[in-house]
Amino acid sequence: MTVVASSTMFYSCDTLEMEDLASPNSLSPDLADADLLLNNIQISYLSAMQDFQGNGAALGRISNMGGRNYYNNFGSGTVSTAWYRLYAGMMPDIAAIEVLNTDGLLDFHMGISKIMQSHVMMGLVDSLGDIPWSQAVNPSEYPSPTVDSGESVYAAAVAMLGEAAGYLGTAAGGDDLFYGGDISKWVKLHNTLLMRANLTTGNYAAALAQTNVIESAADDFQFNYGDQVLLPDTRHPWYQSDYTVNGADIYQSSWMMGMMAGGFDEWRNLFFDNWQPGDEARLGDPRRDYYFYRQTYNTPGNQTALYFSGAAYLWPLDFGGDSSDGVTLQCSLQSVPFHLQFTPDEETQCHNIGGYWGRAHGNDEGTPPDQFLRTAVGVYPAGGSFDNQDDVQIYETSLSALPTGTVALGAGGGGAGIWPIYLSSYVSFMKAEAAMWTGDTAMAAVYLEQGMNQSMAKVTGTISLDPDADATKAPSAAWVSEFVSNTVAAFNAAPASSSLDAFGFPVEKDKLDILGEQYFVAMYGGANDAWNFIRRTGYPRTLQRALSDPAESGPFPRTGTYPSSEISSNPNIIQRADNNTFVFWDDGAINPAN
Question: Cβ of 138: how many Cβ atoms within 10 Å?
Fold first, then answer.
């Protein structure tokens, strides 16, 4: 992206020498460069997707949400980046290309640009509800556009996909930053977005019947990063944050890590089975070694597995000790918040077993000296390090002798990861949901299994990025297969619905709980649609509750609020006082976790 930005700056210098004093993206149509405009559209699109992903991941507990109050967290900055990228970046640039396309030679540019614009339009409606459209396409006549209904903007976005298909049908070819000019893959993305629109708006049969969508890893829609540090820095942004000389910066979601690592009972049962060195632990989800890079063997206040003198134990529990440390993890010395006591969140509200060090939903504490202790992003998707750490540590002489890992500049894959936008696994989970809505649970199970296998293959294949990865520590194919088959069996055995206990947790997981959990795990790194799934279905009900009590956190956002900069400059848009406005497709499904 920086290469593209740099090339734009050089182009700007050239235009100044020619006494064209406008920027390259604001030149008169006869002087604009269509390729540079297309590059800027793609950068704007990627930036908008990252904006949506940040909201979806935080609300879906896929990443950590740092603030306690929903309205403060998802106020005027909710989608300000995506808003700016659409109205100030993509729309004028696409209009400029359209003017240049007098002979049809830029049909490729027009086709893929309209696909990306359509996606951002739908994302803004999902996030805000009513947004400007009919007047926004004519800024010279309407400098302060009014909003259109979200439903009408969605319809316009779907119609735009039809326009895009027309352009791609006549395009002679081109080049781009995602698919390298492969028109057939852009057509699959186009069809996938049609499927997404139908699923979102409740046309489940159409979503399930959609063909020629993203169905294999070869068609995955993602942005690829490099490992260059300077001039320009091409590394994944998460890698840039976590692999520094000052340690890791990002806090991982304790709910996501806890669900993937397995709970106390699962770890304890391992020892009842007489675990011995050389045995594979097979605890939790095999993808966790790729998602998360542990920098320590134990999180304060919790336990880790040790093999000592012929048997496995949980340290310090089995030795009567306490690993709490108020300096690096203050909550390890504190009581469980009252509203989380006697709930499943007791295990993850402060710390996780096995050295998975993150933060709970809504934790807004300051930063202690834990940069070389907290769990960092792994080799997937950020191009970091594969977690070589054993789940059961072999104790020989002292705790200080136990092997651990630390982040370092250039470690692992050097940041050569990906930003996933639509992967084949996502599409399978979307199909599974559509099948559930149509009542075909057998078909849903087929797509669930397919999506999990696609995700497993995608994630485990990234171990090759890390030259220091120990392949002998990688989850075996048998473990991966066992985990998938056990999850599908649990889905088939689960009831269609189940009741809630006195604390609002399901008495047993039902089918949508299991499907939702696996969809969210697969979405790690690109969770644009997690927020939609929660509002559309009310699942998964196992999501971690906020660290603060419901009165303090406030109602779960049904929408965000408009960017403050737009409110200050446009008198025709009135800011909302809360996050309670429903998007047109939102039927009001309530998730008890919120």
Answer: 11
SS3 of 21-32: the string is CCCCCCCCCCCC
Q: Are residues 161 and 243 in the same domain?
A: no
Residue whose tokens read 């260059």: 228
| pTM for the model | 0.94
Q: Is residue 72 in some structural domain?
A: yes
Residue 556 inside a domain? The answer is no
Q: Are residues 117 and 251 in the same domain?
A: no
Of 165, 203, 202, nearest to 186 by C-alpha is 165
pLDDT score of 6: 36
Question: Per-residue b/e over 188-225, b at no fewer than 16 CB within 10 Å?
Answer: bbbbbbbbbbbbbbebbeebbebeebbbeeebbbbbeb
Q: Look-up: residue for tokens 């998007």?
A: 583
Strands 221-224 and 311-315: unpaired
Q: Are residues 59 and 177 in the same domain?
A: yes
Q: Which amino acid is at 112?
A: I
The pLDDT of residue 353: 95
Alpha helices in 18-90, H assignment, sequence order: 34-59, 70-73, 80-84
Amino acid (1-letter code) at residue 218: A
Asked if residue 559 has pLDDT above 50, the reply is: yes
CA-CA-CA-CA torsion for 238, 241, 247, 248, nearest 10 degrees?
-50
End position of a domain, from candidates 354, 376, 401: 401
Is 152 found in the same domain as 254?
no
Helices (H), 353-411: none
- Note whether 151 and 294 are same-domain residues: no
Looking at the chain, the whole-number percentage of residues with pLDDT higher than 90 is 86
Work out the widest C-alpha separation in the chain, in whole angstroms: 80
Q: How confident is the model at residue 3 (pLDDT cuts 50, 70, 90)?
A: very low
Residue 132 is given by DSSP the state E
In whole angstroms, how far apart are CA 95 and each of 38, 100, 165, 350, 450? 11, 9, 17, 51, 40
**Structure token pair of residue 73:** 């967290």
The predicted-structure confidence for 497-510, as pLDDT tens digits, reads as follows 999 999 999 999 99
Contact 226, 415 (CB under 8 A): yes
Please state, as a whole number, how many other Cβ atoms lie within 10 Å of the Cβ of residue 167: 21
Q: Strands, E, within 275-342: which ranges?
A: 292-293, 304-308, 311-315
Question: Hey, is 77 helix, strand or coil?
Answer: coil
In-domain check, residue 211 = no
List of E strands, 127-170: 131-132, 147-148
- Give the containing element (helix H, strand E) for 83: helix 80-84
| Domain encompassing residue 33 | 1-181+561-594
Residue 46 lies in a domain: yes
Four-CA torsion 422, 558, 122, 48, nearest 10 degrees: -60
**Residue 14 pLDDT more than 90?**
no
Of 87, 152, 141, 142, whose CA–CA distance to 117 is shortest? 87
Q: Residue 16's pLDDT is what?
A: 29
